[in-house]
Design a protein that fits this description.
Order of helices and strands: EHEHEHEHEHEEHEHEHEEHHH
Number of helices: 11
Strand content: 5-15%
Strand order of the largest sheet: 1-9-8-6-5-4-3-2
Oligomer: single chain
Largest sheet: 8 strands, parallel
Helix content: 25-40%
Distance between the termini: 27 Å
Structural class: alpha/beta
Number of strands: 11
Radius of gyration: 18 Å
Shape: globular
């Protein structure tokens, strides 16, 4: 199946993952103008009315870039929607996305036909993130256009499946758009994702350590200094299993090696100013691939590094064939 027009001819086969709290218009614009899909969660705009301002800023800035750079236009952007019942902002945020005809919507935590139909109504596409093959089939059955396979090692809410197993199982029955997430922070890992059968790499944690990211300096530095040994997998903070930096858990007064288990039925993602989300706002999500992140840089510089490494990895591969 050919890729939808909005995802064709990207300079690099990369989608910047929407980072809760951290992604913002500056980061999205920097990613899109550097040549990758930029994304942010709708919930990052607080209060909810700010989402309209942010989407106006993104669309107007990218349009101006395209006028000034017709030879290298910006890549389309994406907005992430949490479609779980705990998100009491979904109807409002979808209305704002419809106003600006957001080209790509990334849905998480529950596939919904009504959301997919709404996006298709304004000409957008839906990519749904999943952690196993069963959820992948449900997402496509309910009208998603593509999938984001969130494999072991991904930052934030993540699965436990090997990317080799997860991508192979999905590709047995689905030939549409597929992005792979899970410890990808180098150009060679991007190529490896494609070699496994994915169309795109889905990269989040590396972009925390960028100038544009709305993260505390200590968080950015922890990404630079960290390795896979510094990541812990727990469902305590939202009710859904995810990967987090041990340093932030210790700073919160908890033992990262002996965390209690949360009740999944109490999961919360801060649709409003929820107390649970606020209580854990200083717990820092991170994937296992941060060992490849060596410094805090502008987002464009990170994309350029990924591009150089990607091309070098392709050259090395061709030399061995």
């Amino acid at each position: 199946m050919p890729l939808p027009p909005v995802l064709r001819s990207l300079p690099l086969p990369i989608i910047g993952a929407p980072l809760f709290i951290i992604s913002n218009p500056k980061l999205v614009i920097a990613q899109c103008t550097a040549g990758i899909v930029g994304a942010m969660p709708a919930l990052n705009a607080r209060p909810a009315e700010q989402l309209d301002e942010w989407l106006a800023e993104i669309t107007e800035t990218l349009a101006a870039w395209n006028r000034d750079h017709p030879d290298r236009p910006a890549v389309p952007f994406a907005i992430n929607q949490i479609v779980h019942r705990s998100n009491d902002r979904l109807e409002h945020d979808m209305g704002v996305c419809a106003k600006y005809e957001v080209p790509i919507v990334i849905t998480s935590l529950g596939a919904r036909t009504d959301v997919n139909d709404a996006v298709h109504g304004w000409g957008g596409i839906v990519l749904h993130d999943i952690i196993n093959n069963g959820f992948a089939k449900k997402a496509i059955e309910k009208g998603a256009d593509g999938l984001i396979a969130v494999a072991a090692g991904a930052g934030g809410h993540a699965g436990v499946k090997s990317p080799f197993a997860l991508v192979a199982e999905i590709r047995e029955w689905f030939d549409g758009p597929l992005a792979l997430s899970g410890a990808i922070a180098s150009g060679s890992a991007v190529l490896a994702a494609q070699a496994m059968g994915a169309d795109f790499a889905y990269i989040g944690s590396a972009f925390i350590a960028t100038d544009e990211a709305r993260a505390p300096d200590a968080y950015k530095q922890a990404i630079v200094e960290g390795t896979s040994d510094d990541i812990v997998y727990s469902n305590l903070f939202t009710g859904v299993l995810g990967n987090y930096l041990k340093r932030s858990i210790r700073d919160a007064g908890l033992d990262p090696d002996n965390l209690p288990v949360s009740d999944p039925s109490k999961m919360s993602f801060g649709g409003s100013e929820g107390s649970k989300g606020k209580a854990w706002k200083d717990i820092w999500g991170s994937g296992q691939g941060i060992g490849a992140v060596k410094q805090i840089v502008p987002a464009r510089q990170l994309v350029e590094r990924l591009g150089r490494e990607y091309q070098e990895a392709r050259r090395r591969l061709l030399q061995t064939v």
